[in-house]
Amino acid sequence: MAGPILEVENLSVDIPVPAGLLHPVQEVDFRVERGRTLAIVGESGCGKSLTSLALMNLLPPRARRTAGRLALDGEDLLGLSEREMSNLRGNRMSMIFQEPMTSLNPAYTVGDQLVEAERRHRRTSASQARDRATWLLEKVGMIGAQGRLRQYPHQLSGGLRQRVMIAMALMCEPDLVIADEPTTALDVTIQAQILHLLSDLQREFSTGLILITHDLGVVARLCDRVAVMYAGQIVEEGTARQIFRTPAHPYTRGLLDCIPIPGKTRRGEHLGTIAGIVPSLVGAMRGCHFADRCPHAEETCRSAPVAFRDGVETGHRYRCILAPDHGPDANGERNRANGRTNPE
Amino acid sequence: MNGPPLVEAREVSCTFTVSGGFMKRKRTLQAVNRVSLRIERGEVMALVGESGCGKTTLAKMMMGLIAPSEGSIEIDGRPLSSLDRMEVARSVQPIFQDPYSSLNPRRSIGSIVTQPLRVQRDPDPGTWKRRAQEMMELVGLPRRLFNQYPGQLSGGQRQRVAIARALVNRPRMVICDEPTSALDVSVQSQILNLMQDLRAELGLTYLLISHNLAAVEHMASRVAVMYLGRIVEEADTASLFDSPRHPYSQALLESVLTPDPTLGIPDTHLGVSYPDPLDVPPGCSFHPRCAKAMPDCAQRMPRRTELPDGAGVACHLHAGTHAARSAPPEGNRTARAQDG
User: Fold this and answer.
1) % chain B with pLDDT above 70
2) By CB count within 10 A, which of A17, B76, B178, B209 is most buried?
3) Which of B209, B216, B201 has the alpha carbon at shortest distance from B96?
């Protein structure tokens, strides 16, 4: 079996802003295995989307990317020119965005856009590309694929547009697909179908998938591994079972307490909350980024960087000073009474 | 139950005329189709369904923002059509989804929260500031934000401002249209907690419109499931989530992804796309997507059947067993509708 399809070591993004240097992504490392799914989960501003743009080298012009290693299927991406990179994008690594209406060109038919994705990278005839587009549209569950090729994006519903986006991402049989909130704009019924489709196709084509989302339900159901990001850093990483059954980082635990779970939370009861606000990521930061909101924070948390610790099981790591089995604090220390005092 | 329901919709419909395109005839879109719904005092009624099913249109009719094409709505036993806008606004107030677009960025928080008092020509301007600040405190906003602007606030704080503005006139019902879907997970739970507290403290009634079925299960006392302009099932929350009767409710609830890593992605067998609301299928409008459809479903529209536990279901599968309790025959109603 070959090595991981994507290796990321020590990836950071810095953006100069008037107030100083913003560090939206800091020392991120992870790997994605062939045919497997990694979820990057976190709240807005945690750096999950910038991480994915950094992988594709699609960062805004002023942003600076640094990394120890960034390799697709063993091939280094850091040394590639913009031209070489753009030959990879849409070809060996592709992206699915959240809002299919804004990421499809309204002035071209679905067929034109699908065919372009392939003919940009491969020497295929227009009719071959068209055949593949039809085949893929059928694969993504669109009835009457032939006719759909002649339609414009506005003639399709949101779910169908997202299917077109998925078909487009798969046109060149990529090694890696990055899906940034692929189902957030869709209804729950359509969401289930699209996720079903994604995981089927990914298994069939043995594609590596990075799923960027804030939806913990999607993460738990779809992903093999999960990286939880907070304020620019990965704070915990493990298998979906480890993250949802034995979360170790206080932020992960807090996040899981915030969502109502049938059978676990009682109707009408207060949900958990996380007091405080996300720290500013401008300028240098020494200790744990979560320290100001953490019920367990000690002096050492604020004074020195916190290194990763291993969880009880292998393949589970988290960035905290607490022992992995520091007890099921989550239920005891839920910030329940806090519905009204302003925690922001 | 004492007294009339707080809001009662009787057979309300709402149709829009949609341009079919250049030189094509206009078509009618039936956004809400003969919907009846009672909202009792103090209850949290949730409306769920896919986008385009008419949830928001129904809510807008209850706020008096759209007049129903047919049927009537009563607030507190008085027909809504007889009340003027000010009166309706005093009893029913909305909270919208996106606190970034629902607050005027050029007005201070204080001016936003006192606006309803100004609009209602509240007789006591001397008390406006104090009352607005009390309301801000009640929703968890520090008084010092009074002179600040929405741009200086976080998403959660903005939603609190929207809630304070809705409540400053002490309405009896608040219509919450996706109140948390634009917010982060950790902020969502704060807003849901706040809504629970305010309901208990101020004796509010909520109409909650949400895609987040986990939040609906957590907040609501009763749930109405809408599909293509109709209510296909209405039941107490526990009974709906434990044993949904209508095949659509079943599919909808199955597609909820609870964060359980041992389960996979559910297969809802719901077909590829949502049907075109301009071209509603005949008979039961859900039959083309229904796994349990029978030949009859394409012919006759199922009428609502009241079940012994207080639930109501519009599905042929449930029509036979409780025929004696069901509503008047469909034929009459259709005939009446066509006359009108």
Assistant:
1) 91
2) B209
3) B209
